[in-house]
Design brief:
Layout: H1 3-25, E1 33-37, H2 39-42, H3 46-49, E2 55-59, H4 65-69, E3 81-85, H5 88-92, H6 98-115, E4 121-124, H7 134-150, E5 154-156, H8 159-162, H9 182-198, H10 207-210
Parallel strand pairs: 1-2, 1-3, 3-4, 4-5
């Protein structure tokens, strides 16, 4: 490992440890809409995108599937609903195979279901990144769709809202081809709002999101 990569890895590891330590000290409130995942989840201002909901942000930058699995005790306490987005760090950072990532996510989903058997459960597709990741991400998402069907969860396909015609994250939604900016979060929140509305948790529309920038809806995740 080169020195720069070692430095970055050390910084990410310390950041994960510090954020996890906060979760251990904080009381875990019940009856929240839980957002669970990595830095993309952590970056969402969920209480502002969904002011009608009591939310709980349990995203940690740099986290992977195994990391989430080992911290469920500080995340799940009788949630109203769960939104899970995880896997991109396993794919891009750890460079794990899609099949192995899916197997880990299956284990994670089963454990979440044990702890919250009745909560509506949204499994978000792994978001597009640079074009070179398209094939691996679409394959992984096809496996996640199957996991959601087996575990009585809802697969939330984010590809139509976030991907460009080449299968990359739309450039207006990001500064680094990975993390979302404001327009990107608006597009994701709009998709989630539709799911939450179906569950009766929020109104179907929100003027703030409608005016934040249209997201393309004509595509679906490409078949492989």
């Amino acid at each position: 490992m080169n020195p720069i990569a070692r430095l970055i890895l050390g910084f990410v590891s310390r950041s994960i440890t510090m954020r996890r330590s906060q979760f251990k000290e904080l009381p875990l409130p019940p009856q929240r809409v839980l957002f669970l995942g990595d830095s993309i989840t952590e970056g969402g201002q969920w209480d502002e995108w969904f002011p009608q909901l009591q939310t709980l942000n349990r995203g940690i930058g740099g986290d992977d599937v195994q990391g989430v699995l080992t911290r469920l005790d500080t995340a799940i306490h009788d949630p109203v609903a769960i939104s899970l987005l995880i896997g991109t760090n396993d794919l891009g950072g750890a460079k794990r195979k899609a099949e192995d990532i899916a197997a880990s996510i299956q284990e994670l989903v089963k454990e979440i279901r044990k702890r919250a058997p009745k909560a509506p459960f949204l499994i978000n597709s792994v978001m597009p990144r640079r074009r070179k990741y398209r094939e691996n991400i679409t394959f992984l998402n096809s496996l996640l769709r199957n996991i959601a069907a087996r575990e009585n969860a809802v697969f939330v396909d984010l590809w139509p809202a976030l991907a460009d015609d080449n299968g990359a994250l739309r450039e207006e939604f990001t500064a680094d081809a990975l993390h979302l900016n404001g327009l990107g979060y608006a597009a994701w929140a709009k998709v989630l709002r539709s799911e939450f509305s179906t569950l009766g948790l929020v109104p179907a529309t929100n003027p703030q999101l409608e005016s934040a920038g249209p997201a393309k809806q004509e595509k679906s995740s490409p078949a492989i």
